[in-house]
Amino acid sequence: MSPPARGQKLHHYVSPQLLLIDELGYLPLGTQGSNLFFQVISQLHDRKSTLITTNLPFADWGTIFDSTTVATAIADRLVYNSEILILEGSSYRKRSRKINPS
Predict the structure, then answer these.
(1) What 8-state DSSP symbol labels residue 81?
(2) DSSP code string of 6-51
(3) What is d(CA 63, CA 30) in angstroms, rounded to the nearest whole number?
(4) Could you tell me the pTM of the whole model?
């Protein structure tokens, strides 16, 4: 991604008052994705709201991002001055399939 395109993409993600990231960790981000994600979180840090859903505990974030160093830096910024909700139980999607087996 060229520097101007990267700047446009970065602006796209840091513009909203709330950035919602659903299912973080479903796919690894690789080097370029990890770097862009770090830049987004760094710019949003302590300025705007971010909501992230994931099935992975923080300890496993090294598998999402390019390195555990990047994962730690991102997690550090996200948990500062935040609320963390841990929901346990069976999958809502699996539960609805059991109710309505079509």
Answers:
(1) T
(2) HHHHHHHHHSSSEEEE-STTSS--HHHHHHHHHHHHHHHTTTSEEE
(3) 10
(4) 0.78
Token pair in block for residue 12:
């796209």
Cα dist. 56→3, 71, 96 in Å?
31, 12, 22
Cβ contacts of residue 8 below 8 Å, gap of 6+?
A: none
Domains with residue ranges and CATH for the chain:
3-99 (3.40.50.300)
pLDDT of residue 9: 80
Contact between 63 and 100 (Cβ < 8 Å): no
At 21, list the tokens: 């990231």
Q: Are 19 and 40 in contact (CB under 8 A)?
A: yes
Whether residue 97 is predicted with pLDDT greater than 80 in this model: the reply is no
